[in-house]
Amino acid sequence: MRKKCIHCGAELPEEAAFCPHCAQSQIEKVEIKPPRRWRKKAMIASVCTLLGTFVLLAVFLYHRPVTLEGGARVVYTDKDGEYELIIGSDSSNLANRAPEEYRSISLPADDASCLPALLGVFQNGELADVEHFFAKVESCMLEAFPNENGALQISDPIYSDVFAPSARECDVFFTGTSGTNQLVWTLKMKNGDTIRLSETFEVVTLVHQVFTPEDAPMETIEDLKALLNRIDGEVPADTIVDIYLPAVTYDGGLTMASRAVNLYGCTDGNGRTCFTGTLSIRTDSPSLVTLCDLDFLGSGGTGLSSSASAMIFGCTFSGWDTGAEVADGGMIGVENCVFQNNGTGFRYDTANFSFFKSGFPDCSFENNGTGVQFARLPGSMPLDFSFTVFSGNEIDIDNPIDYPLDLSDAIFQ
Known about the structure:
The protein has helices at residues 37-63, 91-95, 130-134, 221-234, and strands at 2-4, 11-13, 67-69, 73-78, 81-88, 102-108, 112-123, 126-127, 137-145, 153-154, 168-175, 180-189, 194-211, 239-244, 249-250, 254-256, 262-264, 273-275, 279-281, 289-292, 294-297, 302-306, 309-313, 316-318, 322-326, 331-335, 338-340, 344-349, 364-366, 370-376, 383-384, 389-391, 395-398, 405-406, 411-412. The protein is mostly beta strands. A hairpin with a 2-residue loop joins strand 4 (73-78) and strand 5 (81-88). The protein starts with a strand and ends with a strand.
């Protein structure tokens, strides 16, 4: 069997390895390609790049800024450990690590008041180092939402040791028509994290019901006590009660213990309404008692003591060891009142309160042992004694706690 030359086509024996005619080899050359090592390297590089990307992504996700939002309590963790942030308006609740998710205040439509908003910071169940924690804070603010038409006015956050254990405190100003708002604390940390806490703050507008001597007997202290018992049983708790008193003298003490009632003394020219015993206010609903044009004439003891919230206008206090006293948990706002011939005219002695009036205007302190005494009073809002006269007192103002006072318009004689 014969074959042909793969080059010149001449016939050759089957076993011929070359052609005698053209002298060319009859063995076909096969190109052997070397392995492509770059593909393996590229694959290894791709896998490494992918793994690196996953590592970077994991690091980024671990360290990326976070936003923590909660109610009145949020737990925040950073490289120094775990922090517990709590908000409220009562320093004792803060000390007990009891957040306030909701706060309701009852107030007449035409009245205004103020409450503190507090932020506490704890670490490992104990008070955190305030300076150390806030060294990590870029900004801290308190806002109200929706706060339509400026229903609430809020001061800038500050640190005040009188509101311990709070780390920051703001003053929230409101009226009886402020409605319901969310108070929102926002802390922006220097590492990019954001912390938000919120509580509901509701102001309930109160309506009035009036009682006069034509509606009920009011000649004696027993009549007055009976009327207060009747009101307590018949009048809804969210109603403001105004009692217009006759020009009589009430002998013996009187306590408002269950609900707030406003007392208005006689102003028709037939004389003044007078109390010779202690009037004690320990009410909780509604939140504010108004006393107007009343004379407190004593022979020792205390004329007026309030562990709730009260306002006094045009009242006189004479002959008492203490004319009027803010007891623990209470507050008394004062305008156009006279304190004369008392051991102490007016005394602050409270660790907490739910109402505060920053002015003490148009009053007179005459011939008292001490005009005004500050035993205990939390807060840092200056108390303004505009056009209040101090005359003949052994001590005009006794202020061992160094509470901030504005005496620029006070009159000392």
